[in-house]
Amino acid sequence: xxxxxxxxxxxxxxxGIGRHLALQLASEGAELALVCYDxxxxxxLTDVISSRGGKASIIVADFNHAxxxxxxxxxxxxxxxxxxxxxNNAGILDFVQFAEQDPQRIAQMIQVNxxxxxxxxxxxxxxxxxxxxxxxxxxxxxxxxxGFPHYASYSATKFAMRGFSQALRRELAGHDIAVTYVAPRAxxxxxxxxxxxxxxxxxxxxxxxxxxxxxxxxxxxxxGNRDSYIGQPESIFxxxxxxxxxxxxxxxxxxxxxxxxxASRSQTAPK
Length: 271
Description:
By secondary structure, the chain is of the alpha/beta class. It has a single domain (7-263), classed as Rossmann fold, CATH 3.40.50. 51% of the residues lie in helices and 14% in strands. The protein has helices at residues 16-27, 39-51, 68-80, 103-131, 152-171, 194-203, 210-223, 234-241, 245-263; strands spanning 7-11, 31-36, 55-60, 85-88, 134-139, 177-183, 227-229. The protein has a seven-stranded parallel beta sheet with strand order 3-2-1-4-5-6-7, with helices on both faces. Helix 4 packs parallel to helix 5 (152-171).
């Protein structure tokens, strides 16, 4: 897909991946509607884009609200005259033992990571079908293929997004509408708190730079990829987990034991 002149709605636009993706999309000539809850960060990002000759508008939204998705879709149509590409990038996560996770936080994670992307897609899809064109890009995770210990709720939402992407793609067969699912491995962004960062060091977890991940997402969008997994050997493990999950469980056993004390909120993480 040639992104020049395409109207792109990007959620989570000021996060680690989102900010770099916004800048790269703008450099490709896309017109952007950038979504985040922080107006100050959105304005700062649009200033950068404008200074480089790009075009972007902002939509301030709190995805904790039940009807936020419809409001964002309506605002994007108003600001850009329509939407050609939806990028569901916003997300939250916790590194925590599931038994200690706040129930309200579980509900919030499902709302932000899963319900909002589904509702946004539903709000825009009739226009895509009417024009017989468009692209839906769902940013998932390797944890959407490998149920990862201490990320149970997050993994659940990303497994669901992978399944949604697959089901919707099959449903839209016969339409010229692309559904792209992108699954990064762990990324160096503020979404990971200090404890999680220490755990990554202790377990030797591979971390990618957000700019690199944004580049891979952009490539998947341009190529119209169905599924794009970022990083090795994690991508191989994701594939293997579909056939031999017990083998992957064995491979994760040592890493899980190292990570467990970091994940517990009832005790101090090791130094």
